[in-house]
Amino acid sequence: MHPRDLSRRLKEQAIALGFDRAGIAPAVRPPDYDRFRDWLDSGFDAGMTYLRKHADARAHPDSVLEGVRSVLMVSLVYGEGPSGPPRPTSGKIARYARGDDYHHVVRARLEALIEWLRAEAPGVSARAVVDTAPLLERDFARLAGLGWIGKNTLLIDRKLGSFTFLGALLVDVDLEPDAPHETSHCGTCTRCLDACPTDAFDGPHRLDARKCISYWTIEHVGPIPEPAGSNLDGWVFGCDVCQDVCPWNRKAPPGLIPELAPRPEWDAPDLLEWLGRSKGDWKRALRGSAMQRTRRNGLLRNAAMAMGVEGRLDAVPALAGRLADRGEDSAVRAAAAWALGRLATPEARAALDAHRHDDDPAVREAVAGAG
User: Fold this and answer.
1) Which strand (E) or helix (H) includes residue 324?
2) What is the mean pLDDT of residues 272-294?
3) C-alpha to C-alpha distance for 232 and 224, rounded to whole angstroms
């Protein structure tokens, strides 16, 4: 089959499988690879050491699939818009994580696309990538014509906005590439940069993860230090602020894939209920969720700190219970102590006093810091 015909049919099949956009890029060195290395050299990767470990591999997609010639990029809209008015004890979860785990949803469709491709072009070698391989997906999405990279570092599509998942299909055959998206449509707008609650942008296209709420609530393991702990802004997993304010998302369509629709328990969740939920219930709740990355311990840590920042005095008993549970994760206990120090009721002070000589050094440090 002629590369032009195979390329056209491959993109049509991708759309038939539920993807919103599909485009083809040549398998080349990513145009922004040097910028990525500069970003690492600036220390903006915070504690994400895996980015440095595999930095060289991101220089060319051949490290992901030997002999790769072309990269099909796909995008898939997710979410249904911001949550309604929050309850007093509710937390905020990034829109992408409120439904089923996108890795599974996108990969299943890419694997189906591989089956179709192998039937059309026997002998082809292909690999599906969903945010789990050393590939600069946004670079290749731009090369494939799917959009431009905004000042908030995210890919933006004029019609779909930025609330999209990206997937890649690497193949060892020459496909007809689409025209790259050469222009930016951000103009003089700086809403994403100005709205960031922690001032995490060092400038357009430069995100400092050391200040980013998403980094601290998702990637970071262990107690959250100051000033990050006081600046989570109610978020317990991720952050959508720089996307929520983007004008290109005002009229963006909602996601249509049922698996990505928000689960009721993740839409403005009750953080008091989180603090009292059993480990068994947590295991069931996180099954098939992208929040499995942070796991129960990270989510409880974030919830405890959010309650402390919000001044939720009714959370004191639950927080004291987390602190008193010596079988609890160290970071959760330390976060509970930190929150109790912020709330500073007599009951909170009594709970802290009972653990000033705790066996866990992280807990002792948090109790001492709580005053």
Assistant:
1) helix 316-324
2) 95
3) 10
Instruction: Say which residue the tokens 């219930």 belong to.
Output: 281
Q: Is the pLDDT of residue 81 over 90?
A: no
Contact 171, 68 (CB under 8 A): yes
> For the chain, what is the radius of gyration of the CA atoms?
22
Cβ atoms of 207 and 44 within 8 Å: the answer is yes
Q: What are phi and psi of 169, to 5 degrees?
A: -125, 110
**Torsion sign across C-alpha atoms 13, 19, 20, 21:** negative
CATH of 270-371 given 2.40.50.140, 1.25.10.10, 1.10.260.40, 3.30.2350.10: 1.25.10.10
Tens digits of residue pLDDT in 341-355 = 999 999 999 999 999
Q: Which of 31-35, 85-89, 217-221, 250-254 has the lowest mean pLDDT?
A: 85-89
The domains of the chain are located at 3-81+95-171, 270-371
Q: Which of 32, 62, 131, 172 is catalytic?
A: 131
**Can you give the three-state secondary structure of 230-266, one letter per residue?**
HHCCCEEECCCHHHHCCHHHCCCCCCCCHHHCCCHHH
- Pairing mode, if any, of strands 148-149 and 70-77? unpaired
Which of the four CATH numbers 3.40.109, 1.10.287, 3.90.320, 3.30.300 does domain 3-81+95-171 have? Answer: 3.40.109
- Given a cut of 60, is residue 255 above it in pLDDT? yes
For residues 226-247, average pLDDT: 96
The length of the chain is 371
Does pLDDT of 67 surpass 60? yes
Rounded to whole angstroms, the Cα distance separating 164 from 144 reads 15
Residue 267 is predicted with a pLDDT of 86
Residue 131 annotated as catalytic: yes
